[in-house]
Each structure stands twice: as C-alpha cells, then as structure tokens.
Amino acid sequence: EPEVTQTPSHQVTQMGQEVILRCVPISNHLYFYWYRQILGQKVEFLVSFYNNEISEKSEIFDDQFSVERPDGSNFTLKIRSTKLEDSAMYFCASRVVKETQYFGPGTRLLVL
Amino acid sequence: ILNVEQSPQSLHVQEGDSTNFTCSFPSSNFYALHWYRWETAKSPEALFVMTLNGDEKKKGRISATLNTKEGYSYLYIKGSQPEDSATYLCAFMGGGSEKLVFGKGTKLTVNP
Lengths: 112, 112
Hints:
- The complex is a heterodimer of chains A (112) and B (112).
- Chain A has 112 residues and is mainly β.
- Helix content of chain A is 0%, strand content 51%.
- Chain B contains no helices and eleven strands.
- In chain B, a hairpin with a 4-residue loop joins strand 7 and strand 8.
- The radius of gyration of chain B is 13 Å and the shape is globular.
C-alpha cells in the first residue's frame, strides 16, 4: 500500500542552524501539508501546498519557514534559523481526493 | 480560535472490554470530522472521515458516530484487543479551510 515517507526520522541541530525536513508524498497526490506536535501538546497545522504554491498557512508559519516541491516527488520544509521552541515532531501529509489526509511517520527535531 | 477536545485523556481497559471516547468540536462552519489511530513511531492511520450529521461508520470492531448540531463524535471499540492500544486522534475541518484542527487524543491501553 502506498505511504507517505519522511526523512530523517530524527534530527538534532544547534539553535540558529538551518534544517530541511524531507517528505515523499504518495505519488498521485496533489495536496501537501506540514503539521507539528510539540511534546505534550496538540498536533497543529503549519501549511498547505497545492499547484506549486502555498494555499493556506498558520500564524506559526512565519518568515523562518518555507516549503518547496523541488521535483516531482519530494516536498520539503525548511526552517532557516532554528529556535529552541521549534523542537517538535514534524508530520508531512498528502491527499488526492477530498478530505482524507494521509500522514507520514514524522521527523523528530531537537534544537539545542 | 477553534477548539477540539477529546475525553478521556487516557484509558486502560482489559482485553475483551468494549470502550468509547468522545470528541467535541465547533458546531458552526462544520465540513468534516476525521478520526486517526496513532501508534508510537508509526504514521497516524486514517480511520474515518465523517461529513453528515447522524453519520455512523464502521471498520471491523471500530465504529464512529457524528452529531454536527451539538458538535460531538463518539468512537466505539467493541471487544478491545491489545493491538488496539494506540492514541486515537480526532480532527475538525471547517468549511473553506484545508487545515485539520486536532484534539489532544485519547491514549488507549488494552491489557491482555
């Protein structure tokens, strides 16, 4: 069964460093998402992406964040200058039909 | 601010017990209510997408109901098995938005 994959599974970085989180959505999907879950809190929406542009973003998704679909398969989230409070589990999701979003297993980011 | 609440926060049951938990969400501007099952280190798995008031969906021993007028959904598990142990997340989608707004989840532990 097709699935969303994410790399790396864990990433440790120093405050102020740039990180790129990678996702490979399900191949025929057209809509892509990033969510995150800070430990002990709810999963929260960051951004949605369709037709090579951002379709919706949350207040969290400020200028430090960017997304890109550099080729036909990858979908990336870049954090330019990481802060301690960016430590979280980051989930990628994708969908083709209305409603159902399929999630990857997440990347656990730790900012020291 | 959209608020989605789930109760209980955690639940311990014996194998063979039936159980249920609740998700409450805004009753205005409703579009869909999603249920996911999430095991640690795995991708959240989509269980149900519910859109119509009074909807009832079933997948094996798991079923869900929806009341959009009063803003709640119940998830039922009949004859719980140890492999049902997971966190069950509900997520609200409002009209005109791509984002899922999650509850904090109910962590179910089924003891053999």
